[in-house]
Amino acid sequence: MKKILFLTALCCVVSTASAQQEAVQRESQWFLKPMAGINVSTLRDTGDDGHADMKIRFAGGMEFGCRTSEYVGLSSGIIYSQQGCKVSAGTNRGTYKLDYINIPLLFNLYLTDEIVLKLGLQAGWCTNAEMDVDTSSYGVKGNMSIDMRDGVNDWYLSLPIGVSVVTESGVTLDLRYNWGLSEVEKDKMTINGTTIKNTSNRGRHSLVMFTLGFNLDL
Questions:
Q1: Is 154 within a domain?
Q2: Three-state DSSP class for residue 210
Q3: Residue 55 sits in a domain of what CATH number?
Q4: Domain of 204?
Q5: What's the burial of 207, exposed, middle or buried (CB within 10 Å: 0-12/13-18/19+)?
Q6: What global pTM score does this model have?
Q7: How far is it, in rounded angstroms, from Cα 35 to Cα 49?
Q8: Could you give the angle at the alpha carbon of 186 between the alpha carbons of 183 and 187, nearest 5°?
Q9: Digit-coded pLDDT (tens) for 158-194
């Protein structure tokens, strides 16, 4: 009888120690996630004289983070993001192409091991800005691309909010909405040699990003 009690107690101790070790490992669970997908983007606050429609473009990069407890984690990363929209103002038509290197800082809330809510702040650095104009648009005859880098701010801030679904194999589906805080354009820009002043309504980003990734435990 004493042997049975001893073995039972020993099993309980081993089980408890194993559970504690698993909890410690979970609290220090680091991961790396390569990801790629699409943006459905547009610009808001562009003024009454213009109209912006959504444009589908590419997004991809790498995120890394740590699950600090059962329910909480932090993550950051570098994401190359092609943004912009289709624009029209009167008889002018074109496609606004804005490329950024985005750096998100996210708070992760683990509802379960598979479902993660994300909220944070993101900074974006503009690497390219151009407009592909249609025939006889914006004072340009014929289809061509206009460099608009000098009229776009180098940095912008946005609020990302989203949800991730992580499968048992590590495949991750991520849906994220970015609400732009900063104005995209400067107070003036040059198009086809003509300087245009922007006293207001300089546009803010608004986009939905859908990516497919893979969690790599570190």
A1: yes
A2: strand
A3: 2.40.160.20
A4: 29-217
A5: buried
A6: 0.80
A7: 37
A8: 115
A9: 999 999 999 999 999 999 999 999 999 887 776 666 6
